[in-house]
Amino acid sequence: MRIKRQCTGWSSFLALLFLSCLHLLAAPVAMAQQWQVGMTSQGTPITATGYQVDDQPRPTVVMIGGLDGQSRSTDRVLAEYRRYLARPKSEQPVNLILVANANPEGESLQFPPQGRAYQDDPVSFALWRWLGVHGPDLVLIESERDFELADSLSNRIVAGVGYVPALHLYDEPEELAMIMAELGNLPVSPAHEMLDRRLSRSPTEFAEQLASHYGHDFSWPVYIPGMALISRMRLGYLEDVADVISLMSTGRPSISIPHWLPRATWCLQKWLNVRVTWPTLIWPGVLPIWDLMARVICWRPCPCMAR
């Protein structure tokens, strides 16, 4: 009888666990995500939190607080974010991203940023590029001062992606609440449209676009330019690659290079000869020997690795 009671209890537990799992699967679950946008000059992280209503395509709104280094706007965007999450899902028309404390140390910012990326003015560069590559449909900036971020986002191509509509709310909580209540028919931003077009590219289209910019120079024969040349070979640009390699193998480089670097040129030349002589000599899942040799030799330490 003891064994029977134990089995009965275990079966009940499994049944309860199974029903609980079914309930969780059936219930719509909001998805949250966190990012590190960048760091300040002193290394303080700048973070973002995202709320995705469901797996349906929806516009994305970014709320930014603390851009002027003041905690008041940080508290207000946090409060508005929590109010939005508390709404019924039928009243959540957009996915929402919050950058609550965009400038933790109150640094002076400039938009669009100027200078060397992430070395000069790291906060401006981090915010500008992060907003560009995420392509939101609207940016709301709750702050007394926005360093012309709203105007720059709306009227300049952000990080090479597209325009992003933005509003500076001048630290007005009532205005923020009113706008958040009227997000039902938010149009798709040009930056969002550009990202969608990029995601719809086929692998071949993407490779062709990269090949138009990379693999045209082998004056410094190391891993990255070598891989670009190998990739252009695979796309069929054998004559173009032959011209690039011949300039390196017959000319005299204007820079002093270690003795092992010319081997990379030699391997690429041999691999090119193999591709021209036996264009079908490629087995599925197996790298041709000259391709592998070029990869290994081009990978040898270079200045960027030494740092």
Task: Name the beta content range.
Answer: 5-15%
The average pLDDT value, as a whole number, equals: 78
What profile does the largest beta sheet have?
Answer: 6 strands, mixed
Flag low-confidence runs: 1-7, 22-29, 280-287, 297-307
Question: What is the oligomer described by this structure?
Answer: single chain
Class by alpha and beta content: alpha/beta
Strand order of the largest sheet: 1-2-4-3-5-6
Task: Write a structural description.
The chain is α/β, with parallel strands linked by helices and 307 residues long. The protein folds into 2 domains: 31-199, Rossmann fold (3-Layer(aba) Sandwich), CATH 3.40.50; 203-306, no CATH class. The protein is 47% helix and 12% strand. Strands 1-2-4-3-5-6 form a 6-stranded mixed β-sheet. Helix 2 runs parallel beside helix 5 (173-180), helix 8 packs antiparallel against helix 11 (289-298) and helix 9 runs antiparallel to helix 10. The longest helix has 25 residues, at 2-26.
